[in-house]
Write a structure and sequence with these properties.
Shape of chain A: globular
Largest sheet of chain B: none
Structural class of chain A: alpha+beta
Order of helices and strands of chain A: EHHHEEHHEHEHEE
Largest interface: A-B, 35 and 25 residues
Helix content of chain A: 25-40%
Number of helices of chain B: 4
Strand content of chain B: under 5%
Helix content of chain B: 55-70%
Distance between the termini of chain A: 31 Å
Number of strands of chain A: 7
Radius of gyration of chain A: 17 Å
Order of helices and strands of chain B: HHHH
Distance between the termini of chain B: 8 Å
Number of strands of chain B: 0
Largest sheet of chain A: 7 strands, mixed
Strand content of chain A: 15-25%
Shape of chain B: globular
Oligomer: heterodimer
Strand order of the largest sheet of chain A: 1-2-3-4-5-7-6
């Protein structure tokens, strides 16, 4: 049986982390919000994501330190991000928004500002003090080996060790991503909220007009 | 520029971007206190601040921002 090592990501893993963020954003569709919202090509999106990760700002979904990777035979084959929302009084919305505003060209920000009110229709706020699970991805050849659940357990365990007072973990998933919803149910997450926009124009920018909030209670 | 004037201009930006006409700023206010203050909104807020105040932040300036009070202090320090 193949052995996997789980470890915190490093700057050398950035290309795989970029792939993880891109695939998680696509959620099994062909729509990449980085291209539709910011007007970027996929290759430029990857370049800017790489630049943002390499700033090594901790505490949000664009932080290298938020990612745990699974490695086998010296090759990274899966990754998952999670962080404690508002840890050290730092809001992840501030941290990620700062990176976006600092790295992205001004015309991308202008384009996004026109679309932002529409995207708010499916926005769900992060809950301070809880674990937020972000982008996750398992390379095709390594699926159906329970890696996603193992990574979820490892990353939650790691964050709980750092802050044992955390009681809940959450993840937000596009409603169309049935595979991710099922994978999270397998990792003991339950659907606690669905936010849906009646405006189908939103489907021009993101993979679904529905966002699902899933929660796992962390029993001590 | 006085703190009051900076606060008033910042309030106008936040009300517009967060689509909340009745928003009243507090120094300890942060993203979790206001609906819809997500990363995309924050990116637009920062961009609008730079335009309105004719300033340019460095990333290390931005990452000192923990709440509205910090934002005001950092804006003033750049003027």
């Amino acid at each position: 049986m193949e052995e996997f090592i789980f470890r915190t990501a490093t700057i050398n893993d950035v290309p795989f982390l970029v792939e993880t963020i891109i695939e998680a954003e696509k959620s099994g569709s062909n729509i990449l919000s980085w291209t539709t919202i910011f007007g970027l090509s996929e290759s430029d999106s990857k370049r800017y994501l790489s630049d943002m990760l390499k700033e090594e700002i901790d505490g949000c979904e664009l932080s290298i330190s938020s990612f745990l990777v699974a490695e086998t035979k010296g090759q990274v084959v899966a990754a998952l991000s999670a962080w404690i929302e508002g840890e050290n009084n730092e809001s992840s919305a501030f941290l990620k928004g700062n990176l976006l505003s600092y790295i992205l060209p001004n015309d991308c920000i202008q384009k996004a500002s026109v679309i932002q009110p529409l995207l708010q229709e499916i926005h769900i706020d992060y809950i301070p003090g809880s674990i937020q699970k972000g982008a996750g991805y398992v390379a095709k050849d390594y699926r159906h080996r329970d890696l996603f659940r193992l990574l979820t357990d490892e990353i939650i365990g790691k964050l709980l060790k750092r802050n044992p007072s955390v009681t809940d973990a959450y993840t937000q998933i596009y409603g169309s991503n049935i595979a991710a919803i099922k994978a999270n149910q397998k990792a003991d997450f339950k659907i606690v909220m669905v936010k849906e926009s009646p405006n189908e124009e939103i489907l021009r920018y993101v993979p679904s007009n529905k966002k699902v909030l899933m929660k796992k209670e962390l029993y001590k | 520029m006085e703190k009051t004037e900076v606060t008033e201009k910042l309030a106008l930006i936040l009300r517009k971007v967060l689509n909340n006409d009745s928003l009243v700023l507090r120094d300890d206010m942060t993203a979790s206190d206001v609906d819809n203050w997500d990363s995309l909104s924050h990116m637009i807020i920062i961009n609008d601040i730079e335009t309105v105040f004719s300033i340019k932040f460095k990333l290390k300036d931005l990452n000192k921002m923990r709440n509205v009070g910090n934002m005001i202090e950092i804006i003033i320090s750049k003027l």
